[in-house]
Design brief:
Blueprint (H helix, E strand, L loop, with lengths): L1 E6 L6 H14 L3 E5 L5 H10 L4 E5 L8 E5 L3 E9 L2 E8 L5 E7 L4 H12 L9 E6 L9 E2 L6 H14 L2 E2 L2 E2 L5 E2 L9 E2 L2 E5 L1 H6 L4 E4 L10 E4 L21 H11 L7 H19 L1
Parallel strand pairs: 1-2, 7-8, 11-15
Antiparallel strand pairs: 1-16, 2-4, 3-4, 5-6, 6-7, 8-14, 9-13, 10-14, 12-13, 15-16
Length: 289
């Protein structure tokens, strides 16, 4: 099962809709959770239909802020148990497998609301042995090494978060793909990067999905990175047509590799040399990636 959670900061942007379609195609997501949609139900349902997800549950924004959307495929047995402007709490199963609780969150960004949010979340489960997984935007920097630039690390916010983890017996699932999930995309001296989005789970959930992994995908030009939970581990590699991945341009090594292969001389005619350069650069990029 593949679950996508993403703070999209508005679904009205064509670039956002295009990026959402691409990531849904890439991971074949069974469940999609979007926060800060800033869209009424009619618009959210239109996007859901375009992405071919079978069913949906929507929480409208408060004015022009907030808004949650949860979409899932027909083969997923999902029921919504609780919800408010900051979370959608569900019970999930697929193909007759064991049921587990999935809570998709958008924690409040304001300090005065954060402590109350974690306390509300704590009341969702009475059984500490429940199979429970929580995804998306915690709006919490949990430790100093999850932050670069900006104001100093806030110990009080982290304290409320860690106290919740202790009470609920939850831990963070290992993630791959990047250190930070949010950036202000400013110049070097003003740049701020933080890890705000994550996946939490109980020991019982981990036992059920022992190979689960979270992937932080690249979000060029977006504040938040999408996070994908693969319950059965990394997807099998399949043979596909070569495509230049946009995230490669963030790596300096990629630029050097392309330049090295492209400037290599060939004693051929111009057309033949061009084809050779393309083919050789493609092979190098595939191996490097």
């Amino acid at each position: 099962m593949a679950l996508l959670a993403w703070n999209v900061r508005g679904l009205g942007n064509k670039d956002t809709v295009c990026a959402l379609k691409n990531i849904c195609f890439k991971y074949k997501n069974d469940i999609v959770f979007l926060s800060e949609t800033k869209q009424k139900k009619k618009v959210s349902r239109k996007n859901q239909n375009e992405n071919e997800n079978g069913q949906c549950f929507l929480c409208e924004p408060d004015g022009i802020t907030g808004g949650l959307a949860l979409w899932w495929n027909q083969g997923i047995n999902l029921s919504v148990l609780h919800f408010d402007k900051n979370f959608i709490d569900t019970i999930i199963s697929i193909n007759g497998e064991e049921e587990w609780f999935g809570t998709f969150i958008y924690a409040p960004p304001y300090d005065e609301e954060k402590q109350d949010f974690w306390k509300r979340l704590d009341t969702l489960r009475d059984d500490i042995n429940a199979k429970w997984c929580i995804m998306d935007d915690t709006n919490i920097v949990a430790s100093p090494n999850e932050k670069y630039g900006g104001a100093p690390f806030d110990h009080n916010n982290a304290k409320w978060y860690h106290e919740f983890l202790e009470r609920a017996y939850l831990m963070e699932i290992q993630s791959k793909g990047g250190t930070y999930t949010w950036s202000n995309h400013r110049s070097e001296e003003d740049e701020i990067c933080e890890k705000l989005d994550r996946v939490l789970s109980s020991p019982e959930w981990n036992f059920l999905f022992s190979r689960a992994i979270a992937i932080i995908d690249v979000a060029i030009a977006f504040d938040h990175a999408p996070i994908v939970l693969l319950t059965n581990g990394v997807m099998k590699k399949v043979k596909r047509d070569f495509k230049f991945e946009s995230r490669w341009i963030l790596e300096e090594e990629c630029s050097h590799l392309v330049e090295e292969e492209w400037t290599h001389t060939e004693e051929r005619n111009q057309r033949g040399t061009f084809r050779v350069k393309l083919r050789r650069t493609k092979v190098k990029l595939e191996k490097w990636s």
